Amino acid sequence: MTEKEYQLQQTRVMKFYCRLPEYFLEDARIFEGEIAVSTGPIAYEQRQSLRYEAISEGMPWGKLWDSAWIHLAGEFPESWKDREVIFQLNVGGEGLLFDAQGVPFYSITNTSSLVRHYRKEYVQFGSCTTPGKFELWLEAAANGLFGREEDPDYPDQHGDFGSIRKLRYGLFRREVWALALDLEVLMSLLHFPHTAGDFGFPETPAFPEGSAREKQLMRILSRAVDCFAGNPENATVARAILAEALQTPALASAMTVTAIGHAHIDTGWLWPVRESVRKAARTFASQLMLMERYPDYVFGASQPQHYLFIKENYPALYEKIKQRVAEGRWELQGGMWVECDCNLASGEAIIRQFLHGKNFFRDEFGIEVKNLWLPDVFGYSAALPQIIRKCGCDRFLTQKLSWNQSNKFPHHCFRWIGIDGTSILSFFPPEDNYNATLVPEMLNYGVNNFSENDTIPEIISLFGIGDGGGGPKEEYLERGIRCANLEGCPKVRFGRADEFLERLGKYEKELPAWHGELYLELHRGTLTTQAEVKRNNRRCEEMLIAVEKLYAGRDLKEYPARELDRLWKLLLLNQFHDILPGSSIAPVYERTRKEHQDILESCAKLMAALKDKSDCMTFVNTLGTPYHGLVKVPGKEGWLPLTLAPHESRTLHTFDSENIVCLREDRVLENEFLRAEFSMAGELVSLIEKSSNREMLSAPANVLKLYHDRPNANDAWDIDSFYVNEELADAVWCTKITPAKSGSLWSELTLEFAIGDSTLRQTVRLAKGAKELIFATTVNWQEEHRLLRVEFPTSIHNGKANFDIQYGFLERPIHRNTSWEEAKFEVCQHQYCDLADSAGGLALLNDCKYGVSVHENIIGMSLLRAPTYPDKTADRGEHEFTYALMPHTGDFREAGVREAAASLNRPPLMIAGGLKAWKLPVKLETFSGSVVLEVVKKAEKEDALVVRCVERHGRFGRCEIHFDAPYRTITECDMLEWNPVGKAMKSGAEVSFRPFEIKTFLIK
Ligand SMILES: [Zn+2]
């Protein structure tokens, strides 16, 4: 066979394969249908109350996010008895079919312009047992699998939805369908274009180009097409020819692939969360149906929140899932409540993801999941390994780092070591995909790409339609069966992920190690996009912990456990990896905004419930560190200086707040520690730490810079490195400076800027006795595709800087010597970053900003973005945030940088009235000065206190824990509060900590 002849045959086979679906239906008929449209979902039970009208193929019925009930009626003729029936249904959107009892049994989806073969419109109904009239109920949604796909560079390109395309039923020509699958698998061995394996990664044909086997297979394919000769009755004969190739066994040394059915369901993304409820139902119903048909098939799903959606909305479906879980054919995956973002969520929030997630699985299914399952999250903090381990998991799975823009991550199976030294066995499925398709070329890509394939003879494949849910179609399972023992292909078998991950344990000692964060070299904009959501998330995280401590200081009978459980779960849901990062559509954020508001208002109510009516004000420091700062008392002029010990509450009847100020001529703010001077242009031109007389700046600082921000792709997600070359000249100018005014307690000046079409106002404040210069900022932001950053050129030279992360900090280089360092041009911080030499340095604190860079001597922080996709108006409007500069001498740990950042983020609770006898029953006496009492709450499952203490300085730590009656004993336990890890001790127990160690105790 010449090359030209090979290409001729390839084209012919390809076209033949594409035509085969025309033959799937024999004796096709069209359903009679009627439809009732609504703007949102209507429950099955309420469907009869709607008004219906007749519908037929070709009719439009709804606009984006509309919902409909479709009633279909047909008639099976007598001649169809005991023959297989198939439906072809395409309603221009997604759909869920219900059986006669009102239980969902199968789903359809019309389109995805991203991946053509994601379309699902054939429903294998089974045998026609009773000919005659029949009816069906279908719930339709006018949106594609990915909502409405759009690209800001090609605005006209989007999914097509909201019209009826196909309402057909007929006899099922199973042999033609099977022929298509036979062809598909063999074509994939030869890497035909546009087949199910075509995801755009490097092609991996099974045989060398031009090899004899390649040509032999092409000849076999071509003979099968000859045989078919345009007649579907010949499918069986054509298949017999292909069987020759399909029955050639795999090499004895071929690797094994454990294939587990998977459906990545984003809890909210290009569709609102309410649609995810139905996406979960569509996915799970279809998978249960496939389990009936394929007895070896195993499906897995993570995210207890999705199981709760099903429990609350589809109880019969939920019972079926429970049964499959009990049989071991449905695998519960992951420990977290949702697959949450791991850059931005706080340390405590991540622990609560596990706490609520694992409690749900244990309560509902009696199963403890031992792996963390986060295939799609945008980077993984170096604080995670310890949290994973102490939450009872010992394996971690993702694949996201395969998306790196610059560097290929060197391992797929490795020991991941966190800031405290905890090691977690981690695995990246080497197909670089969680939407795998079980075709040979993708499987071959997986085994060849697998970095540890010289040691470990097996991989895992997460196959099925995902992101918008769905899971495998029948076709995927059929392909897996054909690839069980096929020449040129690894051996596929269906199985559980937990068993696969467990088997990796025996290689653990030989595995390479990776220390520190798993930084995703992409999606750096998600540290900044949807700024309001990030700010409210931070406030909610702080507030919930504060309120817990307030109630932990009282009789536990009064503890509002149910309400706090509800509020935490609202917060956890909104930390999903497309919600908190800012990559969702506007309707998702309408709900997030309401839910964050609900949390903050409910916390305020819980606080108010504890006050008495006296005419006073109570301040409660809920931090495990001292508070020192100014507070604004509602209804009072000026500011009140306040110093409180850790967990101290103070009731004041009179206020020392002061508003008498003297105006100054200059632009200098000064106290006993700092002197800050601003120029006429609004720049901070000098910042002196007075005890060392050190100028902290090397050039004007607090410089606002506006950049054109147009990443190559993924608008809301990405900041590409070239943004730095696109600074807009003359886009920022200072429009007004009010001269400094000062009183005995604080001094301040105000700066106003015009930035493009936006305005920014800063009140710069320095309190007496304070070490931080505060920049309280409001912005009216009206930009499009712009990035606003603030920069601070410092006089400090050091090779490294420190960044606050979850319950610890991370040291990162400030240079770009290697491609790995170069890729980290924008990194994640929580409440502070610090650049210092051994004599001292400068910390930048913030109350809600996560995207930061420290490059050589310049600290830069991203403030606002303005992407247009997927939310056209993301971030336009009013913003409020505060950052602060804190020069210091010596080490940042001893200088109290973390404590100052904590005070900025969680000022004392203010209660208008007296607070009845509040005293936290637990007290730490710390010898190293570095162990902090972070959390005191009621235990989830018993009347006991849970206390969480953390070593925050990254060194050995020691403390005594004291507690009051009626509590009698303290026992260390895991973070889930399930398992004790030490003996019961008395009050005053001395406890030691590894660097960054997080310890949890039960006090009874
Ligand atoms: Zn996702």
Automatic annotation (TrEMBL):
GO BP terms in the entry: mannose metabolic process; oligosaccharide catabolic process
Alphabetically ordered keywords of this record: Glycosidase, Hydrolase, Metal-binding
Record InterPro entries: Ams1-like_N, Gal_mutarotase_sf_dom, GH38_C, Glyco_hydro/deAcase_b/a-brl, Glyco_hydro_38_C, Glyco_hydro_38_cen, Glyco_hydro_38_cen_sf, Glyco_hydro_38_N
SUPFAM superfamilies from the UniProt entry: Families 57/38 glycoside transferase middle domain, Galactose mutarotase-like, Glycoside hydrolase/deacetylase
Protein name stated in the entry: Alpha-mannosidase
Family from the record: Belongs to the glycosyl hydrolase 38 family.
This protein's record includes keyword Hydrolase: yes
SMART domains per UniProt: Alpha-mann_mid (SM00872)
Coiled coil (residue ranges): none
Positions of the Glycoside hydrolase family 38 central domain: 521-596
GO MF terms, alphabetically ordered: alpha-mannosidase activity; carbohydrate binding; metal ion binding
